[in-house]
């Protein structure tokens, strides 16, 4: 979910509550929280920074770096798609597509896939960036395309999910859901779970669709709309989904964060928490950013709240991602924040740049990769303490000397 929708929603809510400032001054309450002082406990350093393309500030597109284990791939709003060396940041290849890109890249099966703002899906060869095919889906996408085996699956903002052939971009099947009268701008990025693609829709439903046939395997109502007005009934599932084993984690605006069984869609546990960023997960916890900017960690198996952190209120933080012993979060001023994954306390903060970080950071191996709205990608790492190279005494030698 990109922040444009939440900005518009916040503005609407603020106007209704305060009559847009005519009946009181709530400006102080609506300002982003000031950065707090804390003791730095984790040394984080920048490895490199690379320019991808033009500035995307205020456009709020869904661009984030992705990797395949060997390279980092990124796209810019003005149509540049690049492959970068993960250790040096040097450009391996660059393709200037000449189109406005709104989402991507998706990575898999030797392809790099992006979607243009006017509905074209473009697939490039991962090894050299040459264009393989281009297909039209007749809708804007703000979700990362999913590339899996024979399929490229793209979700558009009009609640339509389309599967294309990985070989030539021909359409295989389409699933379309009803769109409520009022929705937030954004789309869930579909994920692969077994032989199904799982995604969420603006009507509050999470579905699993068979890759081969396009048949719906299961359909779960995660966030039922409630209330009398269209604003009250917003229940979009626009944020990221997470999967660990056969457990799926999903969330809805003005709804719930829940764990679903991958084989049936049955709700295993649910907590009444509202978020449009979605969820991430590691083996222990589920993490999310609530609609007010609070960060929350829940036990992955029970949904019990482990910790909550309010240091980034109204700073439009990204979704937290697990990075070594921390969770990493970007914000609207270009800061990267690191919080302990045990208790949520701040342990480090660095400045990635002067522009907002909108997309969820990427963790690959022991590096963190971040794309900023100024069209740059940067790589970060935790500095390991220096080892004492002095030779430790040999116990056997000590025994010989004492004998």
CATH superfamily: YVTN repeat-like/Quinoprotein amine dehydrogenase
- Largest beta sheet, briefly? 5 strands, mixed
Q: Domains counted in the coordinates: how many?
A: 1
Count the strands? 33
Distance between the termini: 71 Å
Q: Estimate the global geometry from the Cα principal axes.
A: globular
CATH architecture: 7 Propeller
Order of strands across the main sheet: 2-7-8-9-10
Specify the helix fraction band: under 10%
Helix count equals 3
How much of the residues is beta strand, in percent? 35-45%
Radius of gyration over all CA atoms, rounded? 22 Å
The low-confidence runs, each spanning 5 or more residues with pLDDT under 50, are 1-25, 395-403
Core attributes:
3 helices; 4-stranded antiparallel sheet; 41% strand; disordered C terminus; 5-stranded mixed sheet; 403 residues; disordered N terminus; mainly beta; globular; Methylamine Dehydrogenase, Chain H
Descriptive report:
- The protein is mainly beta.
- It contains 3 helices and 33 strands.
- The strands form 8 sheets. It has a 5-stranded mixed β-sheet with strand order 2-7-8-9-10, with no helix packed on it. The protein has a 4-stranded antiparallel β-sheet with strand order 1-33-32-31, with no helix packed on it. It has a 4-stranded antiparallel β-sheet with strand order 3-4-5-6, with no helix packed on it.
- Strand 7 and strand 8 form a beta hairpin.
- The protein starts with a helix and ends with a helix.
- The N terminus and C terminus are likely disordered.
């Amino acid at each position: 979910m990109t922040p444009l929708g939440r900005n518009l929603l916040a503005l609407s809510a603020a106007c209704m509550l305060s009559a847009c400032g005519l009946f009181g001054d709530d400006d102080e309450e609506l300002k982003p929280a000031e950065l707090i002082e804390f003791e730095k406990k984790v040394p984080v350093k920048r490895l490199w920074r690379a320019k991808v393309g033009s500035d995307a500030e205020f456009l709020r597109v869904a661009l984030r770096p992705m990797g395949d284990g060997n390279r980092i791939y990124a796209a810019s709003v003005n149509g540049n798609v690049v492959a970068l060396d993960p250790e040096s940041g040097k450009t391996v290849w660059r393709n200037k597509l000449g189109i406005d890109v709104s989402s991507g890249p998706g990575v898999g099966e030797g392809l790099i896939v992006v979607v243009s703002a006017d509905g074209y899906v473009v697939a490039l060869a991962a090894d050299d960036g040459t264009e393989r095919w281009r297909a039209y889906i007749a809708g804007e996408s703000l979700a990362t395309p999913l590339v899996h085996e024979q399929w490229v699956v793209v979700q558009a903002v009009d609640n339509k999910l389309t599967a294309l052939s990985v070989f030539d971009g021909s359409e295989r099947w389409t699933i379309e859901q009803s769109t409520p009268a009022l929705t937030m701008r954004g789309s869930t990025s579909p994920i692969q779970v077994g032989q199904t693609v799982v995604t969420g829709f603006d009507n509050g439903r999470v579905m699993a669709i068979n890759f081969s046939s396009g048949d719906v395997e299961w359909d779960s109502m995660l966030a039922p709309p409630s209330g009398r007005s269209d604003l009250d009934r917003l229940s979009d599932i626009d944020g990221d989904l997470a999967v660990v084993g056969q457990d799926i984690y999903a969330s809805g605006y003005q709804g719930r964060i829940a764990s679903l069984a991958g084989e049936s869609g049955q709700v295993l546990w649910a907590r009444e928490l509202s978020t449009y960023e979605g969820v991430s997960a590691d083996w222990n916890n589920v993490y999310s950013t609530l609609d007010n900017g609070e960060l929350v960690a829940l036990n992955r198996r029970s949904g019990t709240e482990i910790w909550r952190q309010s240091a980034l209120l109204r700073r439009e933080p990204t979704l937290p991602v697990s990075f070594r012993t921390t969770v990493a979060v970007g914000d609207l001023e270009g800061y990267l924040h690191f919080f302990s994954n045990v208790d949520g306390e701040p342990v480090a903060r660095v400045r990635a740049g002067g522009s907002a970080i909108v997309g969820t950071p990427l963790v690959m191996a022991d590096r963190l990769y971040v794309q900023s709205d100024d069209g740059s990608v940067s790589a970060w790492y935790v500095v390991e303490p220096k080892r004492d190279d002095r030779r430790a005494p040999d116990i056997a030698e000590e025994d010989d000397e004492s004998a």
